[in-house]
Write a structure and sequence with these properties.
five-stranded mixed sheet, alpha/beta, globular, 2 domains, 217 residues, 8 helices
């Protein structure tokens, strides 16, 4: 893991840390980021689930040690959200099942160990598209992030007489065309970030069968 840092860390300057899956995704994001205010941190492999881990075990984990160092907040008893080097943290994972699980694990990490960052609205998820749909009746391609969205697009097209649209499935960030990655995940003028909340973390925790802890509150 190598932090590709940004140039500014002035409070309120809008700097953000984009957390991505691995070096291929990092290379794709680096090609379209703004190096002045956007930093990239790749995490290799599926992150460790830290909900039931001790602070010592979390700090010994290479992925989370690098993340904690990048944020600059300290950890556990010395955690201080006001020392965070970024105004915003963006979870930018692949849109497949593995990426969604990794994003969920990171969400639980922030809720469990750095709750003030989550509580104060500083953690977000970017949503890269999973499918691109082209059809003769469309002026430009449309994108789906979930199977339901894809089914809805197909239904709408069928209602207009298009039964076999062209559908391309993306396998991850590295497979996205650079401009599409920029527009949907990186450019603040065109992307859509989803705020990550304690309520969402609780839903993930229940789905994974974890019990709420109270560290970092």
């Amino acid at each position: 893991m190598t932090l590709h840092d940004c140039q500014t860390h002035q409070p309120g300057a809008g700097s953000e840390l984009l957390i991505v899956e691995g070096d291929s995704a990092a290379a794709a994001a680096l090609a379209v980021r703004d190096p002045y205010w956007q930093a990239i941190l790749p995490m290799q492999g599926r992150p460790m689930n830290t909900v039931d881990a001790t602070a010592t075990k979390v700090q010994r984990n290479k992925q989370f040690r690098e993340l904690i160092n990048a944020l600059g907040t300290g950890f556990d008893q010395v955690f201080n959200e006001h020392q965070c080097r970024y105004d915003r943290i963006v979870l930018l994972f692949d849109p497949d099942a593995d990426g969604i699980l990794s994003r969920s694990i990171l969400l639980l990490f922030f809720d469990q160990w750095m709750h003030p960052l989550l509580r104060d609205g500083r953690v977000f998820a970017a949503l890269p598209p999973l499918w691109q749909v082209d059809a003769s009746r469309l002026d430009e391609p449309v994108y789906a992030h979930t199977q339901k969205q894809l089914d809805d697009i197909r239904t709408q097209l069928a209602d207009h007489g298009v039964s076999q649209p062209s559908i391309e499935r993306y396998r991850g960030l590295a497979s996205l065309p650079a401009e599409l990655l920029r527009q949907t995940c990186v450019n603040p003028d065109t992307r859509r970030l989803v705020p990550q909340t304690p309520t969402q973390a609780e839903q993930v925790r229940q789905a994974l069968g974890h019990v709420r802890k109270t560290r970092g509150r």
